[in-house]
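To whoever is on call:

I kicked off a structure prediction for a single chain this morning and the downstream step that reads the tokens threw a length-mismatch warning. I double-checked the sequence; it's 181 residues and nothing unusual in it as far as I can see. Pasting both halves so you can look.
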Amino acid sequence: MKKISILLMMICFSAANIRAQQSADIQKIRKLYYETKSDIEYSKKNKFEGKLYCNRLIKNENNRSWRAVGNYHYDIRYWYHENPLALLDEGANPHNALKMVIIDGELSARKFYSEYLYYGLNLCFAFYKRDSLEVRLYFKDKKLIKQVGKFDDYSSSVDEIVDDAENCMKTFLASFGIRSE
């Protein structure tokens, strides 16, 4: 009986430690998120002076109706703190340049908004909004550690969000002539 009690206490202690670590990781991600958003707002208010640069990709800028889709428009902003080519020249990883990608889009009658926050080489946070649906995803070492909100039958999945974030990174690097494997 004593052994079972000790084992149960150890399991409870381990679970509490894991939750505490995840909570600390989420707090770090939130801090990074608010700092990055603050830097973005500062840049916008000060005619793009500040800590971050912004590259913008607009798909269908004139909002012409697309065949079989109707309304189609994407506005993608890549916020970064350093020229990835300079990082490459210094022997550093060019992936470290990108801080956040913000996508504002319209597809047929649906409007959507996404944010991808990167820390180093990895996606650490994703926010997805479509109509009244909102989902927040927290990652550590490429693993989902927390999900707030649920996807419905008509929206993306966690894997699709991660794939989109990776494609955004590849597109960002390609805009500088850097191939990403």
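Update from on-call: the warning came from a stale cache, not from the record. Cleared it. Sanity check on the structure: The beta strands are 53-59, 72-80, 98-107, 110-119, 122-130, 133-140, 143-148.
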